[in-house]
Design goal:
The protein has 410 residues and is mainly alpha-helical. It has 18 helices and six strands. The strands form two sheets. A four-stranded antiparallel β-sheet has the order 4-3-6-5. Strands 1-2 form a two-stranded antiparallel sheet. A hairpin with an 8-residue loop joins strand 5 and strand 6. The relative contact order is 0.13. The protein binds calcium ion.
């Protein structure tokens, strides 16, 4: 059964948003979502009960699942404001493979080495790759989500923007409850119903989740990450992952490389790419792992990648090239690899990543909370800029720029 999360469109996105120091206050967990009265929602639930019963959900399961459930306006608010789609590859990778996420990933690889080794032996997915999925999806279990899944999914199904999709997810969630894998009050997740350490949506859970520790329940919600990490490996394995093969690697494109050769569906062998002047960014010879595509999502003047079969397997988990590169690069870093060698060109404000980091560092030193210095300009950095501009008597725009950086350097 093929389960794509594309229609869903978040997956890593939700956790990345939460992890973005420049974009969100760090450490400050958002207030828990509370249901509000909504007669339209109540009428929808009444009709849904009939449809759910027709799909085999027992009345007592339905009754228990909806006890205390309700309409969550914050879920709709989140659904309408998904900035993740517009993040540049540079910002995305800066967040996905931040120093902190890499360091924690290396620590988790050590701490859970035995478990990850058993998972690799059973499913054939390398420990750093499973660790990277864990890191991107939930910050290694720190952001598993505390939104009640039945409330979230019923709110989105009632709202109707993608009503059929979310009603299907809601039915799947009720099947999970009916199976007895988890109690309703423990079935929490992201605002859009992605659950546990590896942020499975309910249909993915039904298709791929496994009971790795053998206690009779497929528990992806508990502190113990074993079932969840094995479930992610099972997902990749059944999507065609090949053990011992890399996802891809960063490459350097030759001067004048034809952009028409870039992208999925334009695969060539390593020898052909080498003949066209494509080289590993780290030097040496291109490895040969079968048909490979060149990707350069930020243009030929930015870091480029040669990707193999396993890259497209990652996209079965979450159908986004940025996500695939995020998982691939983070897994390489967790395994001890270096940062990207290529540089991204300056952004629309003429600033490089180094400029943006310096801006955040100088704002912090000047006493403003820029939300860290990851080089990603988010709400906190903009607020810090506005505060500095106000104090300095500059026009208050909240926008970064080289003139502002020069002002801070004085
Ligand atoms: Ca279990």
């Amino acid at each position: 059964m093929r389960v794509s999360r594309r229609v869903f469109g978040i997956g890593a996105a939700a956790s990345l948003l939460g992890a973005c120091s420049g974009g969100m206050p760090q450490g400050a967990a958002p207030a828990p979502m509370r249901p509000v009265a909504n007669p339209g929602y109540d009428a929808w639930v009444a009709g849904f009960r009939t449809r759910a019963a027709a799909k085999g959900i027992a009345p007592q399961v339905l009754a228990r699942a909806f006890r205390g459930a309700g309409y969550l306006p914050d879920v709709i608010e989140r659904d309408r404001n998904q900035t993740e789609f517009t993040r540049s590859l540079e910002d995305y990778l800066a967040i996905a493979a931040s120093d902190e996420r890499v360091a924690t990933g290396r620590a988790m690889l050590q701490r859970h080495g035995a478990l990850l080794g058993r998972i690799e032996a059973k499913y054939g997915v390398e420990a750093p790759v499973v660790c990277a999925v864990w890191g991107l999806e939930s910050r290694y279990g720190q952001r598993r989500g505390d939104v009640p899944v039945v409330s979230a999914l019923s709110t989105l199904a009632y709202d109707g923007r993608r009503g059929a999709f979310f009603e299907n997810q809601l039915i799947a969630a009720l099947k999970i409850l009916q199976n007895g894998d988890v109690a309703p009050e423990r079935m929490t997740g992201s605002w859009a119903g992605a659950m546990g350490h590896t942020q499975f949506i309910p249909t993915s859970y039904l298709a791929y989740a496994v009971d790795f520790n053998g206690d009779g329940r497929r528990d992806i919600w508990s502190e113990d990450p074993g079932d969840a990490l094995a479930s992610a490996a099972a997902y990749l394995s059944r999507s065609g992952w090949r053990h011992g093969q890399p996802w891809g690697l960063e490459v350097a494109l030759p001067e004048g490389f034809d952009p028409g050769r870039i992208g999925r569906g334009k695969e060539r062998g390593a020898g052909e790419w080498a003949a066209l002047g494509v080289r590993p960014a780290a030097g040496g010879r291109l490895p040969d792992h079968g048909p490979a595509a060149v990707l350069a999502p930020a243009g030929v003047a930015a870091p480029a990648f040669l990707v193999f079969r396993n890259f497209w397997v990652i996209l079965r988990y979450n159908n986004s090239e940025k996500y695939g590169l995020g998982i691939g690069h983070l897994s390489d870093r967790i395994a001890g690899g270096p940062p990207l060698r290529g540089r991204f060109p300056p952004d629309a404000q003429g600033m490089t990543l180094a400029d943006r980091k310096e801006l955040q560092q100088r704002l912090t030193r000047a006493g403003y909370d820029a939300g860290g210095s990851d080089g990603v300009i988010g709400d906190k950095t903009r607020a810090a800029i506005a505060g500095y501009q106000r104090k300095a008597g500059l026009p208050v725009t909240g926008e970064p720029g080289m003139a502002l950086l020069r002002h801070l350097r004085r």
